Amino acid sequence: MNTCKGTLTAIRGLAVAAFLFAGLCSPGIAATGTILPAGVVIADTFMPGFGAPIGSVQRVRGDVVVMHAENAHEGYRARPGLPLYRGDTVTTLKRGKIRFRMNDGSILSLASETKLELNQSVYDKKKKSRSSFLRMAFGKARFFVVKLLKFKRSEFKVKTPTAVCGVRGSDFVLEASAEVTIATALEKTSIELAGLVDPAREPVVLTDYQSSRVYAGGYPSKPVNVSPEAVKRLLDQFISVAPEDYEPEAGEIQAGKGIEAIVKADVRVLVPEKVIVAVPEDFETKEVRAGDIYRTVVQSGVTKERPSTVRVDIIEQAKEGYLGNLPDFPQMPE
Q: What are the respective helix, strand and coil percentages of the chain, to the nearest 5?
């Protein structure tokens, strides 16, 4: 009898665990008991963030959730092709991994149970300026930062609970928790590591295959060499950051499965040639919130199927001119 009761208890425990896991992975269900904020709902339709995208997802394994800064109670399951916006928080759950590319060409890869916030990412090729600032709450992340030697300003910083890491073009790994940060420089890399207790203090410089630790309230330790075996064990926890390895592998999540893939649901608007005029030299473009465009299109009834975002397809025309007063919103072509 006791054996039967024990078996039933075990079965019930497994059933409850399965139910909680299914609830997390199912769209439209609140995610509870995880490393995500309490009360977060995994939405079944992706809504764009504010401003222009600063990057895009390339590869995903397992469960990864993206949250916009303006909506702390809703998340989206990451899929290849999904755009990332300033202020987005990317969280990998147990056995979840992700690789994404920033607009400057840099590639980031997060191991399981990692939380990274994209606080700022400004890349202006014309003005030769890059300024990126990321906040890593916990976990492990690999950063393959593109070197921009001819840029007047090239700044890429990552802040953890105990340290700040600054680079100009490097390949390195950060492991972070509330107690300690471990920075490891990989091949052909030079990074600067400073403790939060005194960021103005001269930082420790790490070069090829060196590592340093920063404990809470302390300073970076003296760099030590990392063995090839230790480096391999570390890198095995990530999806490859090699630029040519951007295609999903067997078993990885594909675009268009589960949550709507934003790149598969564009609405293109044709612009009559008569509204194109010459561009004055002092003309400046203004940023339009993607969410506002989305709502306008949905309300207009332009398409029978609800789109997840809109892209005004006038890029080629805009190279030689800009839009004057537009006529009434055109109907979609057959």
A: 15, 30, 50
